Amino acid sequence: MEQTSPKSKILTDRLLRSWIRCRRKAWLDLYGNKESRAWTAHRTLQLDHQHRSFIDLMHQKPGRGLEALIRGEHGVVGLRLKGQGPQGQLIEAHPQLLQKINGQSIWGNFAYRPVIARQGRRITREHRLSLALTGFLLESIQGEKVAYGLAVCKSNKGLEKEKVFLKEGLHQQLIESLIKLDLDLKLKEAPPITTDRKKCTLCSWRSICNAEAKANNDLSEVSGVGARRRQILQDLGIKDLNELATTNPSNLREDIARFGEQHKDIAKQLVQQARVQKTGIAEKLCQGLALPELSSVSGVLLYDIESDPDDRDDFLHGFLSIHKKSNGKWDLKNAKYHPVLVLLKHGESLSWKRLNSKLNYYPNWPVLHYGETEALSIYRMGERNGAETKELRVLKNRFIDIHDRIRKNWCLPLNSYGLKTVANWTGFHWTQSGADGARALLWWRQWKAAKGSSSLNSTKLKKIFEYNKDDCLATWKVTEWLLRQDTHATIPEKRSTHQ
Ligand code: SF4
Fold first, then answer.
1. Is the CB of 117 under 6 A from ligand 1?
2. 205 lines ligand 1 (CB under 6 A)
3. Total-model pTM
4. Which of 184, 209, 340, 497 is the most buried (most CB within 10 A)?
């Protein structure tokens, strides 16, 4: 992709944040075709979290703009700070919040410090450099040094506050970053796709970057190849997915050992994964059935949790019960969805009782889930609420992680083994287009905020339930695929299969 028309390059705090996440993202933000951007719920979630954190910090409405600063209001938003960068570039910041503190500014015996809302558990480079940029620009207009900024985070436990000191070392990092950002924005073509492709999951440019990585057979497309392994493979002269697919696994095992013994064991797996992605043909990894437990049961429960990670709150536990008919066929048509909403006001003890009684209503039925979260979450809840060891052991034995069974039994022609990718490959489609965990979380927060408005409440809740039910159905679809492969009892070591 090439930039068609040069734009005025003001180095903004927004571009800096994008650049810290991924060099290419900043370039695309400036020159990319906006219509190629996919909406993600993350920005809205971030703004919602910011709003809640600042209300807790300030307890009163902030003023807006320069006039509010001059008047000395307790909090100020809606301000655009401007200045010059290290090489004379125009720089600009739109602070999330400036908070009044004791000091001596040009306006009187008060000054301001920058505040940001921190999402996630830790202060990141993005937080630090954002505060440093705002602090740098603020100093020049208030005539008073900004010694530190504040990062705040609202959670169920209250408001966490942490000072971030704006020392010389951080200022130097800011200067270097602005120079590099400026250089990247002068490039005619977009910088390369990030080697850490996990970042792409949340990025609004993911559609075009994923398509480009696929078209180029980029090594990062191979499931199991992260930034470090990609670099190692390139150092060994393996440039793309096709080359990895045709590499001799024994040679790779020997060669890769010089980068650390731990890589040796994965060499064969990487070659196989690349080969499967190249051919599009799934390969069985071992003899035997993937889900032998399901041959003799009278039904299964599918289980999926929706969580708010900032509040560490598993707010919805969804179950889908599916009976097995007397002819051995699964009665999906009459499957029943059971959402259990876990509200903090109910207390965890009561929630545990409700969940436990739901599970006990279907004794001996395996509980199928995708990934380890569900089993861990309910097991720990049981421990915290006085469940007996024997009871927990029985419960633990009922859980079957479908993701784990897929990974142990099959190599799939997919660049990810996440539920969305695998279930889509088996032919499943989520009812609500564009729905994902982040959007479900956004609906949840909107539902909580809109208490009292019953129509909005019921709509949001219905959407969350539908999404959660679909996650259960998607898990079932993957399970069915595994069961179908199991029924071919004479599975050879390697066979061509899809769906
Ligand atoms: S999708 Fe990935 S590579 Fe593309 S801009 Fe976003 S983070 Fe960078």
1. no
2. yes
3. 0.86
4. 209
C-alpha torsion 325→328→334→337, nearest 10:
110
The answer to whether the CB of 1 falls within 8 A of the CB of 189 is yes
Expressed in angstroms and rounded, the spacing between residue 91 Cα and the centre of ligand 1 is: 24
Q: Is the CB of residue 295 less than 8 Å from the CB of residue 410?
A: no
Distance 36 CA to ligand 1 centre (A): 12
Question: 37 C-alpha to center of ligand 1: Å?
Answer: 11
Is residue 3 a contact partner of residue 192, using CB atoms and an 8 Å limit?
Answer: no
Centroid of ligand 1 to alpha carbon of 221 (angstroms): 13
Write the pLDDT tens digit of every residue in 335-389: 999 999 998 888 899 999 999 999 999 998 999 999 999 999 999 999 999 999 9
Does the CB atom of residue 190 touch ligand 1 within 6 A?
Answer: no
Q: Which two tokens stand for residue 170?
A: 């951080």
CA–CA distance, 180 with 182 (Å, rounded to integer): 5
Tokens of 321: 């019960």
The neighbour count for residue 109, using CB atoms within 10 Å, is 9
Q: Which domains does the chain have, with CATH numbers?
A: 11-185 (3.90.320), 217-279 (1.10.150.20), 292-487 (3.30.420.10)
Q: Are 39 and 196 a contacting pair, CB within 8 Å?
A: no
Interacting residues of 199 by C-beta distance below 8 A, sequence separation 6+? 21, 22
Which residues contact residue 232 at a Cβ distance below 8 angstroms, ignoring those fewer than 6 apart? 256, 259, 263
Interatomic CA distance for residues 218 and 242, integer angstroms: 9
Ligand 1 atom closest to the Cα of residue 28 is 5
Q: How far apart are CA 432 and CA 467, in angstroms?
A: 7
Q: Is 193 in the pocket of ligand 1 (CB under 6 A)?
A: yes
| CB-CB neighbours of 46 under 10 Å | 12
Closest-CA residue, ligand 1 atom 2, reads: 200
**Cβ(203) – ligand 1 distance below 6 Å:** yes
464 lines ligand 1 (CB under 6 A): no
Residue 1 has pLDDT above 70, yes or no: no
| Candidate of 15, 19, 24, 218 to mutate for ligand 1, largest count of ligand atoms within 8 Å of Cβ | 24
Token pair 């990247």 in the structure block, residue: 184
Question: How is residue 349 written in tokens?
Answer: 């003890």
pLDDT digits (tens, 9 = 90+) for 428-448: 999 998 888 889 999 998 888
**3-state class of 161 per DSSP?**
strand
C-alpha separations of 27 from 2, 187, 205, 290, 434 in Å: 10, 8, 11, 46, 25
Residue 78 · residue 69 · CB < 8 Å: no
